């Protein structure tokens, strides 16, 4: 682990978040702008970034690692769901629903993927993209059920299948697994085309490739600006909340620690272990505040949970990144 590079990344992300907060406070970026920016990141920039992460030579070893990461993620979600049913029995109903959702759903897609790429490169982003799939499934089933009636299985499958980030994983996996046949098809298409058509095909493919790479490269900056805008919405004197600190301890401490222990016991590859620990230790999902407001829960409390856990994650993320996946201690 390059500690110097890690802190440089952390400082860069902090500055971008600060820029987002300033832009929000000064009114340059308004609430409606935040909503539009969130959508364009989730539906365009982040999917492009995910596709870019699968640009490497395919081997059976990568496929085996996919299975390991996916299996660990399933176990993490099972533990998260169990904790959400045990820890908050004595809490008021409106607060309990928010805490349950924040335990099940993290900000791993929105915040975790850019951080995984910044620390571990495109390979880390690729495995992180696979890791969040089970969380997406639980988010649209048990997560939504925290605020309303549990959706039917058909609705859950439809939401999962057509989500832009999951579609990006489909595309990325296809490009990775079938890169040989795709290259042969491309070569055959050029061979059977005239000089002018060859130029058009090469130009179109190159332009598309560069467009996807360029769009994916914007993800981290836009994500941190949005995080900063979210932080600017809560006054400093109102941030501290006992329950918000509690959910932060679960999300940022207990869950990643359990993953670290489990990876050591199962002798998981250290690189994969670090990815799993990092993504597990992400703050509460920002969608908790949106859903709480929509379904009549305490959305102010939900916002505090997101803000407090996000601020504390600026400290815990570097610590977990320096945790060796083979041993249970911090370097």
Report a brief summary of the structure.
The protein has 331 residues and is mostly helical. The chain is built from 15 helices and no strands.
Order of helices and strands: HHHHHHHHHHHHHHH
Measure the end-to-end span. Answer: 10 Å
Number of H- or I-type helical stretches: 15
Averaged pLDDT: 84
**Low-confidence region ranges:** 325-331
Number of strands: 0
Overall 3D shape = globular
Question: How much strand?
Answer: under 5%
What share of residues is helical?
A: over 70%
Helix/strand/pairing category? mainly alpha
- Please summarize the sheet with the most strands: none
Radius of gyration: 21 Å
Task: Characterise the protein shown here.
There is one protein chain. The protein has 15 helices and no strands. By secondary structure, the protein is an all-alpha fold. The model is unreliable at 325-331 (pLDDT under 50).
Which helices and strands appear, and what pairs or packs with what?
Blueprint: H1 3-25, H2 31-53, H3 60-86, H4 93-104, H5 108-131, H6 133-145, H7 153-162, H8 164-177, H9 179-191, H10 195-216, H11 219-231, H12 242-265, H13 270-280, H14 287-294, H15 299-321
Helix pairs in contact: 1-11, 2-5, 2-8, 2-10, 2-11, 3-4, 3-5, 3-6, 3-13, 4-15, 5-11, 5-13, 6-7, 12-13, 12-15, 14-15
